[in-house]
Amino acid sequence: MNTSTLLELSLARTLDEWVAQFEQAQWRGAKVEGWLFEGAAVRRAAEQRLARAGVQAKLRCAYKPLLHYFLEEIDCSTLAAVTIRYPVHPQAAQGRFLLEAYPLAALLSDCALEFVAGSDALHYQLALTRRDGSTLQATVFAPNRSHLDPIGATLLSPTGWLRATRAGDAAARLDSACQTNYEQVFERIVQTVAQHNWPAQEPYFERLDIRVDLPGFEQQLALGHECISSYEALHEDIYFSLLEIFQKRSGRPESDRRLQPGQIVPDVRASADTTQLCISLKRFDVAAQDAIVPALQGLPQTLEAIAQAPEPQRIAAEMRAMGGQRFAALSRQGREVTGLYHAGPGPAVLISGGQHANETSGVVGALRAAQTLLASGAPHFALIALENPDGYALHRELCTRHPHHMQHAARYSALGDDIEYRELAPLYERAAREQALALSGAQLHINLHGYPAHEWTRPLSGYVPRGFGLWTIPKGFFLILRHHAGWHTEGRAMLEAVSAAVSKIPGLLAYNARQMALYEQHAGELPFEILHGCACSQTQTNHRGAPVTLITEFPDETITGEDFCFAHRVQMEAALAAQRAWLELTRP
Predict the structure, then answer these.
(1) Rounded to a whole number, what is the largest CA-CA distance in the chain?
(2) Domain that includes residue 212, residue range
(3) Measuring CA to CA, which of 190, 236, 513, 567 is 20 to 30 A from 374?
(4) For residue 89, what are the CA distances in angstroms to 35, 327, 525?
């Protein structure tokens, strides 16, 4: 049997239930306020329907309520100055309600904006001054609930809320949290997985599918790649919450990336009315998965013009064309992890991309860097352009439905772990990296990565992604240098050289400055050193691998077109700068 269903159910839409409730005759003349996880258009339509029943209703968004207040209820072009006093709550992550206002600072860039820390009351207090001199004081409610999550942590999370007062009957007043269908379906997923009788040993399954169809919304903002998506947010909440459940079950510490539960696949889709949920266990079907994604037509002949993540076949063809000594490993699902080694004078470097398969600009950047080294005449390098082909296949599958989502379910391997941290046999994909280091003797690993190009949230689990708080909003292209004991000097010189080199790429410094300024307005001081306009960090580690590892981080998740071309150019230039610096640092 290839599929086993753990749970299948249907839930009513909260918005429809509220409309049906307040259309009743006893509520004529009432005032109603509600907050839920729905888009503006359907909320306005519900308000109009209730108005026809004699009910004055205002329905707002429970997800990022301050931002939606400015998007829906204020003409921002009229504002001259805005002061926002935001909540500071002991059960919330530090600065969480300032972060939840993101990217308001960019949307209000034409007026004087001040954020001020407030009390633990769950309201934003606003003082607005218009260009005509008029003023407005406003209070924006941030509906939240305190709750225990599946691993026993106390969280404060956005929730549905309902307020209603009947005409002439102030005593008959509703004012309380109201669990919406959006929250209900998440709770049932978490309960089902937490209570299931899983096998004693990892992996617990091959593929765990969580198919959700529900009403929701996506709202593109006029700022970079920012898009408020209830579907994407639920994907993130499901994926990382289930990882945390299995993490606790395994007995490992929080955020231990060696966990191998199997492949967790949230598949969240839009529905016009009811919420449908199906949780099922499936066997891997590589041929069927690869057949889901149609072949891309008319891809550019040159890598520099590729404007989206390339097909695996294109990656393989580019590597074949480079020649050299080939080596390979097999992934958990049986796909080949291809590597090549070119011997030459001087110290070798290892260049890799796609360890996290939803970070795709590094794949093209690695290929372009290798091509450039070959053209230089005497290269000495090993290359693994795509370390995680199973994750890459899942990314392609998920992108057929949501091409501009972060798709973190495709971040790790089909075993559910991070290839970087795999230690025990069978090594599968990790074996390719071990071969590359052994063949080349490389003491520098240039590991090209990416991160979200728009805000990353987990609204039903405290809002800020646990363990990834530094990655919630973009902060430009930056560098992470990790080294073994005794390699600090080389690591520092590497950061200096690479940051100086990439600072010369047209447009990059301005790009970094914009994102870092917005980061500091919503998340506080950047926790990195700035070298040549590029955020950098350096740490000593005893993690196995090359003595020096340079990790690049470009905010590439979700981007395509010219932005993708820019991303992989920056990745390539950083890799080439690192290789040049290494030649100088290790020259006899």
Answers:
(1) 89
(2) 3-9+182-288
(3) 567
(4) 20, 54, 20
